[in-house]
Amino acid sequence: MIQAPKVQDMKDLTRMERIGAHSHIRGLGLDDSLEARQVSQGMVGQMEARRSAGVILNMIKEGKIAGRAILIAGQPGTGKTAIAMGMAKALGDDTPFTMMAGSEIFSLEMSKTEALTQALRRSIGVRIKEEAEIIEGEVVEIEIERSVTSGAKAGKLILKTTEMETVYDLGAKMIEQLQREKVVAGDVITIDKASSKISKLGRSFARASDYDAMGAQARFVQCPEGELEKRKEVVHTVTLHEIDVINSRAQGFLALFAGDTGEIRSEVREQIDQRVAEWREEGKAEIVPGVLFIDEVHMLDIECFSFLNRAMESDAAPIIIMATNRGFAQIRGTKYRGAHGVPIDLLDRSLIIMTRPYTEEEIRSILKIRCEEEDVEMTEEALDLLTTIGLDTSLRYSIQLITTSSLVARKRKASEVDVPDVRRVYSLFIDLKRSQQYLKEYESEYMFSEVQG
Ligand SMILES: Nc1ncnc2c1ncn2[C@@H]1O[C@H](COP(=O)(O)OP(=O)(O)O)[C@@H](O)[C@H]1O
Ligand SMILES: [Mg+2]
């Protein structure tokens, strides 16, 4: 029997948090007519590419397109990954967005096609409607007693609606939850009968006079009407992959936590697909096509590319967004070269978005945003110097100098990064150009330069 994950279980699963290089990006920074604002939501410049990404985003949101691929092509550090991140943020939590690097599939302990299948199924959501039996009411009183002999806790909970009032007996688990959620008289709560999970909806309006005592963050809600116990429709979105994993072994959820899912048998997937199709027919579920983002896509080989090609033809296919910084390059697994290292048949299906190098002003803006993100104070002159360095070397290199130069500044007990700090780290950490120059000068002294591929 194929089982769908329950809402409360899914809530406990933390979605992967992405911090670091792109943490400043909160969206694509577009206005209502999908025009890119020069600086918005952490995004700077690259207006055309952002606009194109926005158009695609709208198509995804409408859920009407499947079997499309988008290729973001451009030089290193021109914001390809940043744009994909912006799209992910703009899509919201309800639409699955999976990221992987092309090279990842070679390092996982499973076949390439299994790794791709998992990535594809992670990117397809199933929105499931469920009827849950709940108890919803305003807390009139909570009474907790500890038995003198056994030490066990027992108690009573009195809940009311505008029409009725009932006393419930509390077990130890419920008491623990009530205490953890800090539920007190005057709170409006729901209890899921199947899982006994308690959620706090807010404070009853009738208790609005306690406002001062509760602080400004209190949210007020009406005391529920009618019966205390009712059926309520709840909707939650899970991915096909999550359903796969939960049904593929006894310890499904643990596997999901550990990220150690192993290969999933195709019979399991077939059963699941069939079941999901039934749910759709019964109106219990909807498919939500999400996005699979494959960064550095030129790292895939020809087997992967043809697998993707075929996968895109299935009717529940996610949108595939690829990114590459390659121009004309060898297609891995063949002796042929192709534009962006991607075979022509896949390119032919793809909408191509180009990213362009940044202007000085744009680099300055991005650096400034990163300073704020990394909590680094910097003088205008230091920022100017960093901008020049960014223009001369690479955006990424100059971004990396922000934290390092702030460490140098802190060492001299300054609260602001100044020009000498930036100079110092510039001389400490060489960039690519200088590294290459250095290597050329001293080539003969490195043994690994003998091995040429
Ligand atoms: N348009 C932009 N607005 C804001 N930050 C950007 C923009 N483009 C790039 N960045 C930031 O610059 C760094 C390098 O960009 P990245 O997206 O990794 O480049 P690419 O993937 O094209 O090599 C990242 O930290 C990224 O978040
Ligand atoms: Mg990138």
TrEMBL record:
The keyword Membrane does not apply. It catalyses: ATP + H2O = ADP + phosphate + H(+). It is an enzyme of class 3 (hydrolase). Residues 66-359 form the AAA+ ATPase domain. The keyword Methyltransferase does not apply. It is found in: Nucleus. Belongs to the RuvB family. This is RuvB-like helicase. It comes from Blepharisma stoltei.
